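Bug #77: duplicate submission created two jobs. Keeping one. Sequence:
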Amino acid sequence: MYSISDHPQGKLFDLDQQIGFAPAVQKILVECGATYLRNRQWTISPKRADDLAATIDAWLADGCPENGLPKGGDYGVTHLANGYYISRPPKSMVPAIKRLGAYWNPANSSWAVPAAMTEKFEKLVAKSQADARAASEENWPVIPGVTVTVRPDGSIAVVSPFDPAIKDAIKSVPTSRWDRDRRVWVVMAKYRVALRKALAGIAGEAEAANDANEARLTRASSMRKIRWSESGTEITVASEYDSDVINACRGRRMKWDSFMKVWRGKMRHDQRDALLDRLIEIDENLRNPAHKSAPVLTQNTPSQGNTQTATPRRPQIIALDGKHNVGDIVRITGRAMVVEELGNAFEADDDIGSVGGQPGWEGEYVQRDYLRPADDSEMVELEAREDERRKKSEASRRCAAAKHTVFSGEPGAAIGHVPTGEIIWDNGGSGYREYVISDGEWLYGVIYDGLDGSTWGNYCYGYNCRGTRVPHDADLVTALRGVNER
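Kept job's structure:
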């Protein structure tokens, strides 16, 4: 079950898998003052080792009752003799409990607050609970599809369909963040008034948008050749192949679902109305072909008699629909070519590879690009663009090599603050930031790491700041200034 051995910190308790992960055993270890080391190993002072062993033996003799600390799960607070343990607190609460000296305890997957900070922590929890009670009594605005729930951890969860207006309103509230795991917006209860005002501001807009949705669906039901449907915030358009429908959907950044053979997309209400107006016009033309305007002929048309026969244009390539535009200068197998005309888009079948398509294009919309050789001025323009891309790529490579040199240098001196000087390169990060400072004698590579889960504290360059240094070098400075990410 467990073994006891000597350790520089006292006695080492090495637990096996049968009891090493048992919450009740972890509670016994914590209450006896043991410190978690690694891999189910705990250390304790020699004076208390016998008491700990006797307590574990008594627990085993009682049949291993499960009465320990909660591991993971929902938010909870457990009070033990040596402090508090908090499981799954909201992220906005973590900085506050860290300021109380809390540390992460991997043994029971919770934050541990030292007993010396018990009074301050109890005040923090009481304030959070008071805010939660007040938030539960708020008269929240009624918005279709939006649900506001007050959680026990002192936060407010807002569930809503995708809508830019709702998203912008919630993001304007302090402490708001998007919880990817639960797919909800989270706001601390202390900012309940700001959240209520933000939601109230869009309640009238949401009601007007709901009326607009009903009117739009009524208009869409009049179409016969095109099917329009709305599910929450997603628009679905289905029809037989028609280039006008394709262009209308692509113009609104809709994506082609090759499995369901429909167009899908999300957009604002005014954009939906504009797209529907265009589709109703196309549907009318599809139902009445005589109303459709005649195509513009680009080849020589016989003056009378026989039907026109178009001569294929050469050279041509097959490309994904929308990849090129008329007038683009491209390099095909080493030759500079100009896109002279775009053919109609069509759906690629299994034989697309036999006509110049690429593997994986099956089911996608492609088109023929008709090309002509580039003239001298177009060649100059293409070569200038290619030369500019090469220069940027080379500058980026030199900058990366210079960064590696600086951040691989000797450890920085323990000066307790960020070195003074000119910032010559900065990645622009916030929670995690890397930058290089020059004081004329040294180049300092500074790393600030304040992300959750990182080891916070004072390092050679101050709080959460560590780094390296190398002697000042003009070539390194030039390379770093070539690509500045700020």
